[in-house]
Amino acid sequence: MTFYTINLLIYAAVDAMACLGLSQQFGIAGVTNFGFIIFQAAGGYAAAILAMPPQTANGGFQTYIGGWNLPFPVPWIGAAVVGGVIALPFTFLVGRRLRGDFAAVGLLVTAVLLNLVVTNYRPLLNGDAGLSLIPQPLQGQYNPATASYQWVFAGIAILLCLGVYLFVRRITESPYGRSLRAMRDNDLVADSLGKSLLSMRTVMLVVGGAIAGLSGGVLVSYITTWSPAAWGYAETVVLFAAVIIGGAGNHAGAVLGAILVPVGFEEVTRFIPTSNSLPPNLIPSLEWVAIGLLIVIFLWVRPQGILPERKRVIRVGAPVAGDGAPAGGGTAGWPTTSEAASVVPETRAESGDGGERYARGSPHHPSPAAAAPSVAASPDADGDFGTSHPPAPAAAAPSAATSPDAGGQAGVLSATHSAEVVGDGGSPSARSSPGSPAAARPDRPGGVVLEAVGVSREFGGVRAVRDVSFSVRAGTLTGLIGPNGAGKSTLLAMLAGTLPVSSGTVLYRGQDVTGLPAFRRARLGLVRTFQLASEFKRLTVMENLLSAVPGNRGDSFRGAVRGRRYWRADETAAIARAEGMLERFGLEGFANDYAGDLSGGQRRLVEIMRALMAEPSMLLLDEPMAGVHPNLARRIGDQLVALCAEGMTILMVEHELAIMDEFCDPVVVMAEGSVLAEGTMAQLRARSEVVEAYLVG
Amino acid sequence: MPGPGAVPPGAAPVTLFLASLGFGLVTASVLAIAAVGFTLQFGVTDVLNLAYGAIMIFGAFVAYAVNSAGYSVWLGLPAAVIACALLSTLVNSGVYAPFQRRGASPITMVIVSLGMTLIIEFGVQAVAGGVAVSYTMGQGPTFAAGGLTLTGLQLGIIATSVAVMAGVHVLLRYTKLGKAMRATAANRTLARNCGIRTGRVISATWALTGALCGLAGVVFAMDAGSFDATSTDLFLVLILAAVFLGGPGQAYGAMLGAVIIGIATEVSAVFIPADYKYVIAFVALLVMLGVRPTGLLGERT
């Protein structure tokens, strides 16, 4: 009975570890890895051949590579390392370009075929028969057959499982974890906000692979055998069943699922009396049928699992309430009225420039950039970012000079952003590398910020956009109008990098960005929104906003691993900024609601706020007012105009002539994939071909 | 599937090559029926139905049941076709369609289809037992032409496949249903707005592709000689490889993919151990997924 309990505990620990790894990939990051079992298998084999003596010394009845006879704990460490390393070749399957379900199929097929190869190729890992007589940890010193040895083994396995649990929690509950969940909810949008999907998915594959590898290593050290029969592709499905039933996205759920499904099934079938009248394969077959049924039924009845993902509530208003000037918000592109009042005079005083109307570029800019050094010097020293870093124009220290953001970043650089100067390597280097074209050429009001030169896009012979050239000048709210199918959204997608161009060039602040993916352009300050609702559904409104903040020290794998203390200051500042934003748009009461539960108009607001949180110098808006109540649409329009006055440049696709009339100047007209005309609405109305195209189209 | 092991040892390389080419043609024929069904199913219904292989083996066992009841397996074949058409329709209306109506993501659909794979495949195994079985049937006379040796059965399989391909071509090109299927595959909303009853088209597609799946299952089992409930696990990899090679959803692409994969796997068995012949399909699939997921005939993105 004792050995039975120990056996159960060790299996539970191993399965729980594997499920935690899978849950991290699937439930948190949305990476559907149908080949998960490969990594456990690799860990098992790695631990085996590291621990086993050379094949000749082992009776010679099995053939395998390696046989290094290494002492504990090297085999387990090796198992985790190998599990992580063999994940790397799979990263080419999980990039942005491939549909998630196709990538999943690729991984499934890989699992099936690797099993086939290992089964048939005996010299590598003894083929079909598998490896046996795998040494148990420290079996020279202690007797593995004793109960005390096995209790210690079970204890270590459980401790390791606990360690894995704490590790995945640490990652998930960090700003990086939030980015992972954002990617899970909508990867295209996460990409457009500056998140590198490839990097995040690679990290997830490697981390999950290492965890799976470790679980495999622990398992083979206990059962002392490992063969292809133990890791058929269907075993992955069992783990998926466990995670889905326990609750994908909740690590406690993953542990619960591991106990219920792989362990539970094994135990339940143990108590079914064996009868000779039953066909030999009946019980195992029915077991698989039951697992299939559980998956389908749970996905239908309770897709969130037994323990659903819990809501991350962020208490609003606490740290900086009543302060009146959350500094982050103050330097963001969306200051409250009082903040604007306090910031603008300061910058004017310093610059002495006459261009108040366009309080941007040189006059407005030095303030946030100069705030950088003081922040950089003491990001950790004080928890309360909000109150202690008012815009400090006096501190015009070296980093202000080297910051390339002397241009259109203007009023949108926040204190949090500057933290990246000393933060880890995850920060957008393009923005802070001295000597980039942007640094050499600050946006003058009226200067060209974004330029399309001969841009075309074809979809299988249909030319959706043909040879479009136009430019957007700094500080303008430029409208892009045209009938349905004119190619507006396609053009916008090419400008943002969501779609590659078929031909032509896109210049952003003088830099050729044609070859840059969307997340890199977003990091340069060129941020888009989407025509269709694109909120991260299972993130709260607050989390949606926070997910877009660039340069958070916790928004990288390394930062997340270093723990809350490392990134708390950035997070506090980001929350303060988000609060300012929510107040400005009147959504502060919804901060802790799931974005997916909001009304259509509110979701549009969330999207605009989120884009602003990304600290853009130029916004590309795709019909931000579509489906929004006219009153709200007017308010959005007013806010956009105010933003432009502060130095933001906006290109807005719109359908409604009335909106164009009221807010946009100049307006670009597109029809049938080409730019037809450009000018003020009054000028355009006078041109018959424009009116014709628009009305006829 | 018979590998080149059936060729007498010591045969000249050319003979070996020709023999494997023969096997390749047979494999390609079986594969073409299965892959065209799979790709049409995916293209029109938008479900990447991984349970396709399980339904195939279900069909093979239906024919086996008829066969072991004392009737000819050729009588079992239509029974299998009907049974698989029914099962596919049932699986769709009972499981996939409700999930789709609820707006389940493609990934969720794939996971559901994996669940269905377990239910069907191991349901079959629970009933049929875990042992390999084979049909009671003759192989027919042997035909030889210049080193290419094929049995009557193998020729029959090739002829069936060619007939099915011609039928699919006629269906897609010249019939109203086929045109409606193509329209639905291209853009379901637009098709519905143009007056096509997409719901019916999708139901018809499930029945039709289910029938192809059943036919593929029986000819697969005939070709394989002996089979058990899990035999199509690996064959599904070949189907997926053929489908992705030609571009998912592309019927003609799947035909081309089936010919390439079928012949490549068998011919490669001349040069590498027969156990690894599927590796070619695997590499082809991964390369296509990584480099060009729209397939050889698909549009470049």
Fold topology:
The complex is a heterodimer of chains A (697) and B (301).
Chain A (H helix, E strand, L loop, with lengths): L1 H27 L7 H16 L22 H12 L14 H21 L1 H4 L21 H26 L2 H11 L1 H6 L4 H27 L9 H14 L4 H20 L11 H20 L25 H5 L5 H15 L9 H4 L1 H12 L7 H4 L9 H5 L12 H4 L10 H4 L4 H4 L7 E12 L2 E12 L3 E5 L6 H9 L6 E6 L2 E2 L5 H6 L2 E3 L12 H7 L9 H6 L1 H22 L14 H14 L4 E5 L7 H17 L2 E6 L2 H7 L3 E5 L2 E6 L1 H5 L2 H9 L1
Parallel strand pairs in A: 3-8, 3-9, 6-7, 7-8
Antiparallel strand pairs in A: 1-2, 1-4, 4-5, 9-10
Chain B lengths: L12 H33 L6 H17 L4 H29 L4 H23 L4 E2 L7 E4 L2 E4 H23 L1 H11 L1 H6 L4 H27 L1 E2 L4 H15 L4 H21 L6 H14 L10
Antiparallel strand pairs in B: 1-4, 2-3
Helix pairs in contact in B: 1-5, 1-6, 1-8, 1-9, 1-10, 2-3, 2-4, 2-8, 2-9, 3-4, 3-8, 5-6, 6-8, 9-10, 9-11, 10-11
Detailed description of the structure:
The complex is a heterodimer of chains A (697) and B (301). By secondary structure, chain A is an alpha/beta fold. Chain A contains 31 helices and ten strands. In chain A, strands 6-7-8-3-9-10 form a six-stranded mixed beta sheet, sandwiched between helices. Chain A is elongated, with a radius of gyration of 29 Å. Residues 319-442 of chain A have low confidence and may be disordered. With 301 residues, chain B is mostly helical. Chain B has one domain: ABC transporter involved in vitamin B12 uptake, BtuC (Orthogonal Bundle). Chain B has a two-stranded antiparallel ribbon with strand order 1-4. In chain B, a hairpin with a 2-residue loop joins strand 2 (142-145) and strand 3. The longest helix of chain B is centred in the N-terminal third of the chain and has 33 residues, at 13-45. Residues 1-7 of chain B have low confidence and may be disordered. Classes of the chains: A alpha/beta (697), B mainly alpha (301). Chains A and B meet through helix 4, helix 10 and helix 12 of A and helix 3, helix 4, helix 9 and helix 11 of B.
